[in-house]
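Report of the visiting student (M.T.), summer placement. My assignment was to run the structure pipeline on a short list of targets and document each run. The first record concerns DNA-binding transcriptional regulator.
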Amino acid sequence: MRADRLVALVLLLRQRGRMTAAQLAEELEVSPRTVLRDVEALAVAGVTIEAERGRYGGFTIDPGLRTELTGLTQDEALALLAAGTRHGAGAFGLGSALASAMLKVLDALPPPRREAAAGARRRLLLDPEVDLLSRRVPREDLPDAVVAAVRRAVLDGRRLSLLHAAPGGEPRRRTVDPVGLVTVRDLGYLLALRDGEDRTYRLSRIREATVLDEPARRAADVDLEREWRERSARFRAGDGQLAVRLLLHPRRREELLDTALAVLHEEPGPPQDPERQLLEVTFQDLRHAEWALWQLGTDAVALTPDALRDALRERAAAFAAAYARPRPD
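After the run finished, the structure tokens were exported:
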């Protein structure tokens, strides 16, 4: 909305001092021409923004134009700035709202605390785009309109019409009663009821969402943490999953946990292999288990089931055979 953008423009100038139209356009994700129109609109509203021409020119604003939020300590403000990561908010379609809120938090602090918090924030980095090995961290692409509709239905207590596509299936239309939204490792989920039965939907698999006029048929109150814990336990105990026993080097444990559905048992490895751990974990199916263990190389050795060992052995033999052939000139 334009009103939010005008506020953000004022706050940017308050916190950063002189900025060019190009710099403001980049921050606000608009064109420089739109920035110029916004500056004119602020001038009409009585907000004086001075324009300086030339190579080192730009826009500045009266530093006295501000309010103070003296109740926040420096550490409290820093906690808000650090906790508000773009990825977590993005899972609920609140990325732009988060950016605007962070600007307001900074601007509301008294000058010494504002400068200290802004400086400290630059020394804290949460959830970078790549890890230490330059591997890009996957992020879900969530349509703004879909997430906004889902969020509104959850908060307003309205029924929701969804076009949802299960993995490997065709999209199907469903009418649900939304219960709450959960984000886990930057993945967003809608907890809902369908015909009175618990349902959990990945937000990235919802193609369309329409808020209905009917009130949601749900309890007046909810313990969302308990609800998530119970649904997660039921999912891990579901039918059709594959239990795998394996030996694993501890340095790859987190990678395994990122792909396995659940860890059923864990203990030290056998005396003949003391550096490894013995685990029993579950996967969706044989294909899922084969893919996950192949990523871990020789740091993971499947013990059971035999079908998984056979699949990994065949894959390794095919890999070795490809490199046994003479290199083409």
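The chain has four domains: 2-61, 74-121, 144-235, 242-324. The two ends are 61 Å apart (CA to CA). I thank the supervising group for their guidance throughout the placement.
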